[in-house]
Amino acid sequence: MNVARSFNNWRKYRQTVAELGRMSARELDDLGIGRSEIRNVARAAIAR
């Protein structure tokens, strides 16, 4: 994996964590995500 791809993956991970972290518990529940699952969802986002 090259440096640019690693940086982009890190940036996408941090952005996803930040966006989901700003959501209310109800909004997360509507998406089927618990607050404790935010990091796992962000990791899955960079795997795609």
Outline the structure in words:
The chain starts with a helix and ends with a helix. It has 48 residues and is mainly alpha-helical. Helix 1 runs antiparallel to helix 3. The radius of gyration is 12 Å and the shape is elongated.
Please report which band the strand proportion falls in: under 5%, 5-15%, 15-25%, 25-35%, 35-45% or over 45%. under 5%
In terms of per-residue confidence, which ranges show pLDDT below 50 for 5 or more consecutive residues?
A: none
Task: Count up the helices.
Answer: 3
The radius of gyration is: 12 Å
**Main sheet attributes: strand count, strand direction, barrel closure:** none
User: What's the helix-strand series?
Assistant: HHH
Assembly annotation: single chain
Structural class: mainly alpha
Shape: elongated
How many structurally independent domains? 1
**Number of DSSP-assigned strands:** 0
Helix content: over 70%
Calculate the terminal CA-CA distance, rounded to whole Å.
15 Å
Mean pLDDT: 95
Short structural description:
InterPro entries: YjiS-like (IPR009506). By secondary structure, the protein is mainly alpha-helical. It contains 3 helices and no strands.
